[in-house]
Inverse folding.
């Protein structure tokens, strides 16, 4: 019984194998044909994009000079900012270190002004009493 089953499967396989091979070749032919059409369409698309890409390259070449100028100004502004920050830092350090000297100088000036104002007021008062 098992032998007859195996013989029957062999006979069916021998009949189906050429048919399945032909179907596989047919599908492979269809696949290769569609793949060829896809490659042709991609080639055409790339050829159509070529003038656009050339225009983009020309536009970028025209824009490059102003961009270089902007970069130069940017570097200059960075240097100015760094120098300004450095100068402000030095001024702050100087003021911090010399705050006592500044305070005493301002107090002296205020005292001189007060004494000068008091003497002026005293002279005015003496003049009024003499009359």
């Amino acid at each position: 019984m098992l032998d007859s089953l195996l013989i029957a499967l062999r006979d069916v396989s021998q009949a189906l194998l050429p048919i399945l091979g032909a179907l596989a070749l047919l599908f492979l032919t269809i696949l290769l044909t569609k793949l060829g059409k896809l490659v042709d369409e991609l080639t055409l698309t790339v050829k159509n994009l070529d003038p656009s890409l050339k225009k983009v390259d020309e536009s970028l070449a025209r824009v490059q000079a102003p961009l270089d100028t902007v970069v130069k100004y940017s570097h200059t502004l960075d240097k100015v900012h760094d120098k300004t920050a450095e100068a402000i830092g030095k001024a702050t350090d100087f003021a911090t270190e010399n705050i006592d000297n500044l305070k005493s100088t301002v107090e002296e000036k205020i005292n001189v002004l007060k004494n000068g104002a008091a003497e002026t007021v005293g002279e005015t008062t003496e003049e009024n009493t003499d009359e």
User: Anything to note?
Assistant: The radius of gyration is 50 Å. Residues 2-97 form one domain. Residues 2-97 form the longest helix (96 residues).
